[in-house]
Amino acid sequence: MSSRSLSLSQTLQDYVSAVGVRPDPLLERLRAETATLEWGRMQISAEQGALMDLLLRLMGARQAIEVGTFTGYSALVTARALGPTGRLVACDINPETTAIARRYWAEAGLADRIDLRLAPALDTLDGLLADGGEGRFDFAFVDADKPAYGAYYERLLRLIRPGGLIAVDNTLWSGKVADPSENEPSTVALRAFNRMLHGDSRVEMALIPIGDGLSLARKR
Fold it and tell me: Does pTM surpass 0.90?
């Protein structure tokens, strides 16, 4: 037993990949294609995707929002877990990377479950609120521009039902959030977000050291 989380060596990471995530040829092809892109490292880890899938199924989630879609890996995982009656609103601004996403969603038979909205995410979230979306969603995932995390969170907290879950990616930021010498804008924004979430009595929360850090907030 250990009172601390493990730091994964490459050998241990390979072991987790081998026995902790079941093979999925479609997801593996999407990972491989994304890895060839300049910003391919932005894709979530396979084990984080597996955790999100399990959480969504445990919740029985049917309505979800994603802020930051990139090439569609997390959206594919989410839409599958929502089931045939589920719906995911996916927010992004990049037509090139989301074109990759659309190909894989179509191949997976999930295109009709994913409503991709190419617009600034705050505009989309405000539109959902204006359309009566408050309290109508079960789950939200955030993996986008870090300085806007606080603004996304406040809107999503209104859109999520009581008992719903918000998952926020990159909250460990390669360890930079714990290094006082690191003060570029995204690092500063993530530190502020982490402090805010830690003190937010509206939710129950945990920061999970998986991938680049995944914070979970369950709305009370």
Answer: yes
